[in-house]
Specification:
Layout: H1 12-24, E1 32-40, H2 44-50, H3 52-69, E2 75-80, E3 83-90, H4 93-108, E4 111-113, E5 116-118, E6 122-128, H5 135-151, E7 157-159, H6 169-183, E8 187-196, E9 202-213, E10 217-219, H7 225-231, H8 234-255, E11 263-268, H9 270-273, H10 278-289, E12 296-301, H11 302-307, H12 309-322, E13 325-331, H13 338-343, E14 348-351, H14 353-357, H15 363-378, E15 382-385, H16 391-399, E16 404-405
Parallel strand pairs: 6-7, 9-11, 11-12, 12-13, 13-14, 14-15, 15-16
Antiparallel strand pairs: 1-3, 1-6, 2-3, 4-5, 8-9, 8-16, 9-10
Helix pairs in contact: 2-3, 3-4, 8-10
Bound molecules: ligand C2E and calcium ion (CA) (2 copies).
Ligand C2E binds near residues 220 and 353.
């Protein structure tokens, strides 16, 4: 089967076969093949708000609009859930970018769906084929550009970075520098507590990586995680993080007899998720430090899970069999279908902080957070709110029966030694988050 039944477009398999053929043939003189990957932003709100049938209707309209907006000779496909591809000949990257801009406009026009009018936005990643390109590389670069477009706020297009700068010395230097940082111990972990909203007690921590750069000082992950992903160094970096986080759990257990075991959450990137050695690496870290698997939670972003849900499901099942816990991170920013939510062996749903930011000021955000919490509970998951900054947000979350919360309201991420006060149990009648306790 080479076509998608909903939209009639080529499906992923059909598209990759077509792409292989197109790359084997030379493009016309003065023309280059360009690939646009078009991904719908916040599509989940359509599925949750209007139902699956309306979601399908939206996808059909998107498919028609893409087809109508591009040259008749362009190959158009639906790669996965809400990801579409356009392969066409362009004079240069600039022309591909203009077509992407037209698509952004065509797709943002209101659509009549399920008896109402809705507006959606998309993010687009563009890559331009070289004479020696293969399908994997071309798709990989467009996917990396799409990732940038999402990171930079969505509803925009990004062209692969190699269009702007060749993989020159500075790129190589950067790679060498990050590799040394991983090997020479320049990385460190900060931890942010997660609070149980019923008991008011600290429930565990999320480990967040930092780079203590010799010249630039302490760097946040935004300064290097993308580069680590593009350069492949995310695998050794991710392995370092898991080992260091589990080592810290073990150190906390050792340092105070009788202290209850500490739960730890660690972020796993999409690339780690498709690494066949992930299972072995997690097992080794737990065994090396003698930590029970149930005390470790792996956080995987919704976008990483939905990029290839079938492969993700396989990996999650393998990880789940180890006994570790699994969380969907940044929930609401990707496009999980309810079917996958039901099938993924997930324990926690972490509601993206963009929705918590508007929880008390925007009725739509309030409705989204409320439905995420209900959805979590209906499917036996723990609901976690991240990015809680204000007392009003905490109160709203308590009223909505959210289970756990983390955010600057309690504390910013801190080093292990600064976290010692968080191990002192709070008196039962004093919930963490009451104003007099903030800042401890
Ligand atoms: P994330 O997984 O969503 O992590 C939470 C981020 O939210 C952290 O940023 C944290 O400092 C920030 N945050 C916490 N509370 C608040 C709040 O109340 N308000 C606001 N505005 N922000 C808050 P950080 O440490 O800069 O990490 C950013 C992202 O980098 C993380 O987002 C995660 O996606 C990634 N990251 C961090 N550590 C790792 C890692 O070890 N491996 C991988 N693959 N990614 C990591
Ligand atoms: Ca996280
Ligand atoms: Ca998150």
């Amino acid at each position: 089967m080479t076509h998608d039944s909903l939209t009639g477009l080529l499906n992923r398999g059909g598209f990759l076969a077509e792409l292989q053929l197109c790359l084997a043939k030379r493009a016309g003189r003065k023309q280059r093949r360009g690939l646009l990957i078009v991904d719908l932003d916040f599509f989940r709100t359509v599925n949750v708000g209007l139902g699956i049938a309306a979601g399908d209707e939206t996808l059909s309209i998107v498919a028609q609009r893409i087809r109508a907006a591009v040259h008749p000779s362009a190959v158009v496909a639906r790669l996965s859930g809400v990801e579409f591809a356009v392969l066409a000949d362009f004079a240069d990257a600039g022309e591909a970018q203009s077509v992407a801009a037209e698509l952004l406009e065509a797709l943002s026009a209101p659509m009549a769906v399920g008896g109402t009018s809705i507006e959606i936005t998309v993010s687009i990643g563009v890559s331009m084929a070289s004479e020696t390109d293969n399908p994997d590389r071309l798709v990989g670069r467009a996917a990396a550009a799409l990732h940038q477009a999402k990171k930079r706020g969505r509803n925009r297009c990004e062209v692969e970075c190699s269009m702007h700068s060749d993989p020159d010395d500075s790129q190589l230097n950067r790679r060498g520098e990050l590799r040394r940082a991983i090997e020479d111990g320049e990385l460190c972990l900060f931890f942010q507590p997660q609070i149980d909203l019923v008991s008011g007690q600290m429930n565990g921590f999320e480990a967040l990586v930092r780079w203590d750069h010799p010249n630039k000082g302490l760097l946040a992950p935004s300064a290097f995680i993308d580069f680590a992903e593009e350069s492949g160094l995310i695998l050794p970096l991710g392995a370092w993080v898991i080992n260091a986080a589990v080592a810290q759990q073990a150190a906390w257990h050792r340092s105070a007899a009788g202290r209850p075991p500490v739960r730890m959450s660690v972020n796993i990137s999409a690339i780690q998720l498709s690494d066949p050695r992930l299972e072995e690496m997690v097992t080794e870290a737990l065994e090396r430090h003698g930590v029970a698997p149930g005390l470790l939670t792996l956080e995987i972003t919704e976008t990483a899970l939905t990029a290839d849900p079938v492969a993700a499901l396989r990996t999650l099942e393998i990880l789940k069999a180890l006994g570790v816990r699994l969380a969907i991170d940044d929930f609401g920013t990707g496009h999980s279908s309810l079917t996958y939510l039901k099938r993924f062996p997930i324990d926690e749903l972490k509601i993206d902080r963009s929705f918590i930011a508007g929880l008390t000021t925007d009725s739509k955000d309030h409705a989204i957070v409320a439905s995420c919490i209900q959805l979590a509970h209906a499917t036996n998951l723990i609901a976690v709110a991240e990015g809680v900054e204000m007392p009003a947000q905490l109160h709203a979350l308590t009223e909505l029966d959210c289970d756990l919360a983390q955010g600057y309201f309690y504390t910013r991420p801190m080093s292990a030694e600064d976290l010692e006060p968080w191990f002192i149990p709070r008196p039962d009648n004093m919930r963490l988050g009451e104003p007099q306790l903030v800042g401890q």
